[in-house]
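Standup notes
- DV: blocked on the single-chain target, sequence here:
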Amino acid sequence: MAKAARKHPFEDGIAEILIGVLLATGALTLLSRWGFMMLLAAMGLNWALPKLRDRWVTPRAGSASLPQDKPGRVLAGMFGYGLAVGGAVLVLHLLTRGFGAPLGGYRWLPLFVGLFLAGGFLYVWRTAGLKRFGVYLAASVGGGLLLTLAMQDGLRETAYGEVRKLLWLLAALFLVTGAVTLAGFIRRNPVIGETGEGSAVHGQ
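- DV (later): unblocked, structure below
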C-alpha cells in the first residue's frame, strides 16, 4: 500500500512535465542575469502541481498520500547526498588536475550535475518502483559522464556549455515522456461522476 501511494503522484506524468519545464528554465538561464528565474519557476511549478492534479487526475483516479517526512529529515538527506556527490567529484578533480587542461579545471562539472540530479530519480525509482525513473537515472549519470569525457578542455565556458546540453537533454526526455504518460493516463481513466443510486469518484 505504501509503494502504491508513492507511485500515485507519478502515474499521470504531470510531475515529469513540470520537471522538464524546470530543467529547460535552468538551461535557458544558466550563467545569465536571469538565473533567479530558476527559483521563481520552481516556486511557481510547486504551486501549479496540486492544481493541475486536482483538475486532471483526482476526478479520474482519486488521491493517495502518506504522512509527510519531517522537513529537517528531507533537507538532511539532500544535504548528505550533495556532500557525497561533491566529495566524489572533488576527489576526481584532485586526482586529475596534474594532467593539465584536458582533465583539470571545470572538467568534472557536467558529471557532478548529472550525479546530483540523479539522486531524486534514484529515490523515486527505489520507493515507487517506476522503471522509467531508472531510465532518467541512467540518462542523467550517463549523459553527465559522456559530456565530461567529450570535453576538449576544462575551461569554465566549455564546462557550463556541456551542463546546458545535459539540462536540455533531460528536459526533452521529461517533457516527451511526461506528455506520453499523461495522454495514456487520460485515455485509460475517464472521469466517473454520479452514477446509479449514489455518487462516487473513481479511485476515492
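- Follow-up: Strands lie at 194-195, 198-199.
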